[in-house]
């Protein structure tokens, strides 16, 4: 994972920061050919990333470099586009010397995504708590829907099963910046716990007399229920906002006869 989402180049303020974005045919030598080209043109890579995860036969190469002011970049781009493996080339100047380490538009779980601060999320929660009747129930429904939707998408793109779906969940939490999880779950009995370290909600919320991570509890419930096709309930028993070391979410089976669609309609109380 990248260290920062947004950086600034400060090495040589007299130079221009230029970016290249390439689409290329993914062969064994594609990346090496492109990197060698940049080296031959004496374009030092300040930051770069490769991605061929969406389509194995295609790749994306994004690179930021510094060049002396006045250098002809358009001719370099034209030469670059003539390399056999390169399909398209886009380039431009970063006016404020900014280096972005994620692509635009950002994608997460197959859909357009945006980056917001944890404080913004918590502000929304607090405004809902102050002005919306039964706001916790509303947040629960949102989390359940998001969790079940994430599980369905993961099933579509991965080999997810009863043995590894929680491992995928851990990767998802870290990738989204939500926290790190440890779990101890008895799948046959639908009981257990999920511990969340560094919960983005609890750490931003501050002190509270009650648990505050209802969104994460309901996301877990939606995700696990969708994966196992059995409805579970999840409640937070310990929370960092209450002074606990981690946030603990306790899993239990839903009452007999209750299905996930009942939960999503708010029929489980």
3D structure, described in words:
By secondary structure, the protein is an alpha+beta fold. The protein folds into two domains: 99 residues, ACT domain (Alpha-Beta Plaits, 2-Layer Sandwich); 153 residues, Muramoyl-pentapeptide Carboxypeptidase, domain 2, CATH 3.30.1380.20. It is 35% helix and 28% strand. It is built from eight helices and twelve strands. Strands 3-4-2-5 form a four-stranded antiparallel sheet, covered by helices on one side. It has a four-stranded antiparallel sheet with strand order 9-10-12-11, covered by helices on one side. A two-stranded antiparallel ribbon has the order 1-6. A hairpin with an 8-residue loop joins β11 and β12. The chain is elongated, with a radius of gyration of 23 Å. 25% of the residues are buried. The model has no long low-confidence stretch (mean pLDDT 91).
Briefly characterize the structure.
The chain is built from eight helices and twelve strands.
- Number of DSSP-assigned strands: 12
Low-confidence stretches: none
Bin the helical content. 25-40%
* SS-based class: alpha+beta
Strand content: 25-35%
| Number of spatially distinct domains | 2
Q: Using the CA coordinates, give the radius of gyration.
A: 23 Å
Full CATH superfamily name of the largest domain: Trafficking protein particle complex subunit 3
């Amino acid at each position: 994972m990248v260290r920062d989402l947004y950086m600034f180049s400060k090495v040589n303020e007299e130079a221009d920061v230029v970016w290249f974005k390439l689409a290329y045919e993914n062969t064994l030598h594609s990346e090496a050919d492109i990197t060698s080209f940049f080296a031959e043109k004496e374009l030092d890579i300040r930051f770069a990333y490769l991605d061929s995860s969406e389509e194995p036969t295609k790749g994306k190469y994004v690179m930021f470099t510094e060049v002396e002011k006045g250098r002809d970049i358009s001719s370099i781009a034209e030469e670059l586009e003539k390399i056999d493996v390169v399909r398209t080339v886009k380039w431009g100047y970063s006016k404020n010397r900014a280096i972005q380490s994620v692509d635009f538009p950002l994608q997460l779980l197959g859909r357009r995504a945006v980056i917001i601060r944890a404080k913004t999320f918590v502000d929304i929660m607090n405004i809902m708590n102050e002005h919306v009747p039964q706001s916790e129930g509303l947040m629960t429904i949102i989390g359940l829907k998001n969790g079940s939707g994430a599980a369905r998408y993961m099933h579509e793109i991965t080999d997810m099963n009863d043995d590894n779906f929680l491992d995928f969940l851990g990767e998802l939490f870290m990738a989204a910046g939500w926290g790190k999880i440890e779990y101890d779950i008895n799948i046959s009995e639908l009981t257990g716990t999920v511990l969340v370290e560094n919960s983005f909600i609890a750490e931003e919320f501050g002190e509270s007399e009650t648990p505050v991570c209802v969104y994460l509890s309901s996301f877990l419930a939606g995700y696990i229920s969708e994966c196992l096709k059995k409805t579970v309930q999840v409640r937070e028993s310990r929370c960092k906002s209450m002074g606990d070391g981690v946030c603990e979410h306790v899993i239990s089976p839903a009452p007999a006869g209750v299905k996930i669609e009942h939960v999503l309609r708010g029929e489980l109380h």
